[in-house]
């Protein structure tokens, strides 16, 4: 299954890549949609789904926002290629840039990219104001994920066990699990 297959796509959007570490490492606040200034070879590589957002972040320089740390691999055989990790300019409204600047300066937040996607044929980046989580918060996130996973598994077992599973089959399953649990004696 592709990366895009796991996340529901919104209408008119085709997901390129999602920053999975963002929700684990940060508490996300306001989100913004921004266009990107790209070269042709970068767009071609993004159409193939080749990009990495893990170490990406945004910087505000001279009233403009730049996306840094995004890895778009170099296209093999391109006449006019690009650098893999060059800073890319984001296209935002002035009011959005001011909101980002206020969040960074006053509240000590950082701006990270959460996902890249195509919207009506154009590459867009979703960026978010984020505050770093402490180790304790990360542990809590892992506990919540584990609890949700266990609950889903229990619901699946309850649904699957009631349909078509005879008592004889259940007894066989129980025997097999006991056999696996018992240590075997060397012969």
Helix content: 40-55%
Name the poorly predicted regions. 1-6
Q: Looking at the chains present, what oligomeric state does this protein adopt?
A: single chain
The SSE order reads: HEHEHEEEHEEHH
Q: Count the helices. How many? A: 6
Total number of β-strand segments? 7
Straight-line N-to-C gap: 45 Å
- Main structural class: alpha+beta
Mean pLDDT: 82
User: How would a crystallographer describe the biggest sheet?
Assistant: 7 strands, antiparallel
Widest β-sheet, arrangement of strands: 1-6-7-2-5-4-3
Q: What is the 3D shape? A: elongated
Radius of gyration: 23 Å
Strand content: 25-35%
Q: Can you give a write-up of this model?
A:
The two termini are 45 Å apart. The chain has helices at 3-6, 20-25, 40-47, 94-107, 135-162, 167-181, and strands at 13-18, 26-36, 57-61, 64-68, 88-91, 110-119, 122-132. Strand 3 (57-61) and strand 4 (64-68) form a beta hairpin. The chain is built from 6 helices and 7 strands, in the order αβαβαβββαββαα. The longest helix has 28 residues, at 135-162. It is 40% helix and 28% strand. The protein is elongated.
């Amino acid at each position: 299954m592709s990366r895009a297959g796991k996340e529901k796509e919104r209408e008119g959007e085709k997901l390129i890549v999602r920053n999975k570490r963002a929700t684990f490492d940060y508490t996300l606040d306001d989100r913004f949609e921004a266009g990107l200034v790209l070269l042709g070879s970068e767009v071609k590589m993004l159409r193939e789904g080749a990009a990495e957002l893990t170490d990406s972040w945004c910087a505000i320089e001279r009233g403009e926002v730049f996306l840094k740390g995004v890895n778009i691999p170099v296209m093999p055989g391109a006449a006019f290629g690009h650098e893999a990790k060059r800073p890319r300019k984001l296209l935002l409204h002035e009011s959005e840039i001011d909101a980002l600047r206020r969040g960074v300066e006053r509240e000590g937040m950082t701006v990270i990219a959460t996902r890249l996607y195509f919207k009506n044929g154009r590459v867009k980046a979703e960026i978010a104001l984020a505050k770093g989580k402490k180790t304790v918060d990360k542990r809590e996130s892992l506990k919540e994920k584990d609890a949700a996973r266990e609950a889903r598994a229990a619901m699946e077992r309850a649904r699957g066990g009631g349909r078509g599973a005879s008592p004889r089959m259940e007894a066989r399953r129980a025997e097999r699990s006991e056999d696996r649990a018992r240590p075997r004696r060397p012969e």
